[in-house]
């Protein structure tokens, strides 16, 4: 998936599902 900006792409690529309440929630989790 390409989202316009290179550095933003890299950040999104490395997102993982959060295991703690304080972790950022990614799109995959939101869609569950």
Notes on the structure:
This protein has 32 residues and is mainly α. It has one domain. It contains two helices and no strands.
| Overall residue-averaged pLDDT value | 59
Q: Which bin fits the share of residues in helices?
A: 25-40%
Query: Could you say how many structural domains there are in total?
Result: 1
Largest sheet: none
Our measurement of the CA-to-CA distance between the termini, rounded to an integer number of angstroms, reads: 19 Å
- Beta-strand portion reads under 5%
Ranges where pLDDT stays below 50 over 5 or more residues in a row are: none
Secondary-structure element string: HH
Rg result: 11 Å
Number of helices: 2
Shape: elongated
Helix/strand/pairing class, anyone?
mainly alpha
Question: How many E-type strands?
Answer: 0
Task: Please outline the helices and strands.
Blueprint: H1 6-13, H2 27-30
Can you give keywords for this protein?
about 30 residues, mainly alpha, elongated
What would you say about this model in short?
It contains two helices and no strands. By secondary structure, the protein is an all-alpha fold. InterPro entries: Coiled_stalk_dom, Serralysin-like_metalloprot_C.
């Amino acid at each position: 998936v390409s989202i316009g900006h290179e550095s933003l792409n890299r950040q999104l690529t490395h997102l993982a599902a959060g295991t703690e309440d304080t972790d950022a929630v990614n799109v995959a989790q939101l869609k569950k």
